[in-house]
Write a structure and sequence with these properties.
Layout (H helix, E strand, L loop, with lengths): L18 E12 L2 E13 L4 E5 L6 H8 L7 E6 L2 E2 L5 H11 E4 L11 H12 L3 H14 L15 H13 L5 E5 L7 H18 L2 E6 L2 H4 L4 E6 L2 E5 H5 L14 H4 L13
Parallel strand pairs: 3-8, 3-9, 6-7, 7-8
Antiparallel strand pairs: 1-2, 1-4, 4-5, 9-10
Helix pairs in contact: 3-4, 3-5, 4-5, 5-6
């Protein structure tokens, strides 16, 4: 499953949280009516963590995904992705951060219909300025890593839904990002293909150390992650990382208790939230 780390493409960073949100809000002005989509959200996603953000429609989870993926900016609060505060970046810097640090997997695949699997997967590297020969080499390695070495020149309409989603995963990982955001990755797939996509995501998390964040309303999908962050009405309602942390007599974690003591990767204090 593990693709080689090619020259000229950085791998995930080795220290510090992948994502850190502190009292993040996001409000929208809809014709004079202010809608508070997120209200004081705080949590940390550690390097190499496997977490799910789960909640019903209208909970704010899609807004949160857009912020974590640097597709939008918070109204207030602090959001650091790959150690950089997104509110301090201009549009060009934010686009570069998104290209280098975040890979996306969408429910509807978002593949270019007239492009081959190779060209679809190489697209993030094109935006990065990678030369054509190296781009094709990296795209092929990424496709082979998800079991699609036999589909390099096929277009989306020549592939099944499960194969298209694997192309999307290969595209998300070709630039060796630190974070992979998967928005309802099994939503358009049957049970067998959905299980295969989840297996691939789990292997990539384990073998490559990329932080995987699933965004879903499906409790069965969310339950496969080692951590669940439940969102409702724009707030974090429950975070299993907090529940996994052992408490001392006063209700605080014992001195020196970190992720290993908690039994969960990335079990950290979440400022300003109650589980």
């Amino acid at each position: 499953m593990t693709a080689p780390a090619p020259s000229g493409v950085d791998g995930p960073a080795t220290s510090g949280p992948a994502i850190e949100a502190v009292d993040v809000t996001r409000s929208y002005d809809l014709g004079g009516t202010v809608v508070d989509a997120l209200q004081g959200v705080s949590f940390v996603v550690e390097e190499g963590e496997y977490a799910a953000i789960v909640g019903p429609s209208g909970s704010g989870k899609s807004t949160l995904m857009h912020l974590l993926g640097c597709l939008d900016r918070p109204t207030s609060g602090v959001l650091r992705v790959g150690g950089r505060d997104v509110l301090e970046l201009d549009d060009s810097e934010l686009a570069d951060l998104r290209n280098r640090e975040v890979g996306f997997v969408f429910q509807s695949f978002q593949l270019l219909p007239r492009s081959t699997a190779l060209d679809n997967v190489g697209l993030p590297l094109l935006y990065r300025g990678t030369k054509r020969a190296e781009r094709r080499e990296l795209a092929e390695a990424s496709l082979r890593a998800v079991g699609l070495g036999h589909r390099l020149t096929h277009r989306p309409n020549q592939m099944s839904g499960g194969e298209q989603q694997r192309v999307a995963i290969a595209r998300a990982l070709v630039g060796r990002p630190r974070i992979l955001l998967a928005d309802e990755p099994t939503g358009n797939l049957d049970t067998r293909n959905g299980a295969e996509v989840m297996r691939i995501l789990e292997e990539l998390n384990a073998e490559q150390g990329v932080a995987v964040v699933l965004v879903t309303h499906d409790d069965e999908v969310a339950g496969r992650a080692r951590r669940q962050v439940r969102v409702r009405d724009g707030r974090v309602e429950r975070d299993t990382a907090l529940e996994a942390r052992p408490a001392g007599p006063a209700g605080d974690a014992p001195a020196g208790a970190g992720p290993a003591a908690a039994g969960e990767p990335g079990a950290r204090h979440v400022a300003g939230q109650q589980a």
